[in-house]
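Why do we bother with a discrete structure alphabet at all? Because it lets us treat a fold like text: something you can write down, compare, and reason about line by line. To make this less abstract, here is a complete entry for FemAB family XrtA/PEP-CTERM system-associated protein. Read it the way you would read a sentence in a foreign language you are learning: slowly, and without expecting to understand everything at once.
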Amino acid sequence: MNAPFVPAALRVRLADLDDPGEFARIEAFIARHPQGTPFHRPAWFVSAARATGNRALALVQERAGELVAFLPLDAIHSPIFGRLLASTGFAVGGGMLATEDADAAAVFAAVAELASRLSCTAIELRGGLLPQQGEGWTLRTESHCNFARALAEDDEAQLLAIPRKQRAEVRRSLSTDLAVEIGAGPADRAAHYAVFCESYRNLGTPVFPRALLDAVLDAFGHDADILTVRHQGAPVASVISLYHRGTVMPYWGGGTSAARRLRANDRMYYALMLHARRRGCTRFDFGRSKTLSGAYHFKRNWGFEPEPLTYARWTAPGSAPRNDDPTSSGLARQVLAWQRLPLAVANRVGPLIARGIG
């Protein structure tokens, strides 16, 4: 009689992110997994941590040396918001990737233990496989929505796919004295960051350090670029986009005070749709927006339908939930005050605060 088959034991451990072989195994696992995103890649979470002075970590679960689960993490410290483990930091995606034979509960228990060991009072998982409610975990489904749809087959079809009112704005932008440039060199980065800083100050939000944006561009290489709209030579709207599995993801973008009058943002996103299709993309992922916010309605005007997102949060026993929502009543005054800062002051102080928001 044959002996019964005993499956190999599962074990959870911290990944060695200094080992190139570990990097390669993780990248291969993400590439195979149907839910893998750019925000799972070491190119994102390791680069983001190094550029902001935070710490990159990852939990892996193995069976007989084979990865069956992976959870990328950024350990983020803020003197204002406290300590956070995010999957992943400065991203709208992340979370656990797992195969069918993984023990997800063991990984969720391990990340809670890791947070306690690192004195992080909060964990946020922004996608992927999510834990059950309880034991410190709560799920949120109403706070943010994502917007994505297929690209059209040619330029004219892309224009006609935009609802009538927004299509009229795009047509006006095409008749305006605007020029579009695409690249990722020093001049493209400088132009983008100048626009980005002004846009964030006007929104009342501390701007991310330029080192973060540069690190992501460097790490993604051909899978990222900058599209900038200029008026009379001056940059008025600009966006950094990521490219992943045939999808373009405009991520860090914004416009100057003049952009609205010039309809530069309308030109920027339409031009990006055309550019992405010429790169071989078939899908446009407009990214997440807070439900019912101005950005939420802007994306709906383009014909994108909201897809509610579910995030998981863990709070350490005895700790208050982390509040980093700029629309909350507790932060509304700070947002208003930030909007009134001189741009030079906001640009100097903002990155010191933003590196801890995560």
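What the structure line is telling us, in plain words: Residues 49 and 55 are 5 Å apart (CA to CA). Residues 186-203 form the longest helix (18 residues).
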